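To fix ideas, we give here one paired sequence and structure record:
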Amino acid sequence: MSQDSQAEIEQPFITHLLELRDRLLRMVVAVLVLFIALFPFANQIYVFIAEPLMSHLPEGTSMIATQVASPFLTPFKMSLVASIFLAMPIILYQFWAFVAPGLYLHERKMIVPLLTSSVILFYTGMIFAYYVVFPLVFGFLTGTAPEGVAVMTDIASYLDFVLTLFFAFGFAFEVPIATIVLVMMGVTTPDKLREKRPYIIVAAFIIGMFLTPPDVISQTLLALPMWILFEFGVFFSAAFAKKKDDEDEDRDEQPVYATGAAGSAVAESPENNTAAESAGEPAPERPWYDTDNKPLKYPDDFVPLTEDEMEAELDRIEAEEEAEEASARSASEVKTEAQDDPYDDYDDHSGDGGQDASATDPVDVKLVQVMEYREENNLRAARGLLYEVLEEGDESQIRVARNILSQLDSDDNDII
């Protein structure tokens, strides 16, 4: 590989790296700007986060700091994490802007609402944890303390505890998005998900057991929303699946095209028959289509040729073609000699316009071209020419075309 070609390959990769670097820098800048804005209020933010526990502590008790740097580092950590949470829309937008050029149009249309709903559901999970789960969990935990034990939680341990719950509930609320994405990717279907509902419920409680503290309240409060959100995901994914099925049906109902040797495509559908009739022309007969526009409906009296009969028929066609080509060459030579004769201008011709009546039959040419396509394994082009032979050929040529189509169908069934 030359140095120039190597440079052409490496240049786009370097360009993508530079763009990725710019996107990451923007994410970091967004987080830093929010952190600088929130850090002066770090203590107030921590008090707000600790309110669910503080309201359930016994009178005369409070939270404590067991480490020397905890009074500074814990609010600092709280502000940094809050900055990342608040910058999540900007982070996801930068990620989207980086991958969008490599996506198809329909993928871009789907990713934007999915990302938006993912952010909303993540924040909803955090809000649910703060206003519903925390009061119940802390009320239960502080109420079960043995007599004579003062509940005085360390501020660093409390922060780790609530961040774990925030992340757990935030990601648990993404279940509808995950369900819709799996259905859109064809990994599963809404019906299969409904059949596996008992396993999903058990899995929700197992996930709640691992993601939440060792108490049944937080586990249940995480498992139940996951189950409910799963049902929502199945409901909405069914709409996406129905839309996809409708698009597939529309695609299947598109007209079938027969491609000729010159590469032109002719629509073979009932609409063409209607258009021909409206123009005052009789609609062309299409013996290989039934009323539902399904291809290759053979007559009841059709009997496929044997291999020997097929070979003999093809040999006959090739022999006729060679004879016609030889006749055409002979006629061309005679015509050339006549043009060289100076007295030929005085002859009285019949005025056929110089056309040769023994020109090669175009239908036979197409049949020979079909055999070449079969040898090249270009079955689609072969079928297109065979459809034209069925429409243009005589009885013998149509019989050969039907036999070849029958063999092609037999080969397809063997492959399947």
Observations:
- Residues 3-252 form one domain.
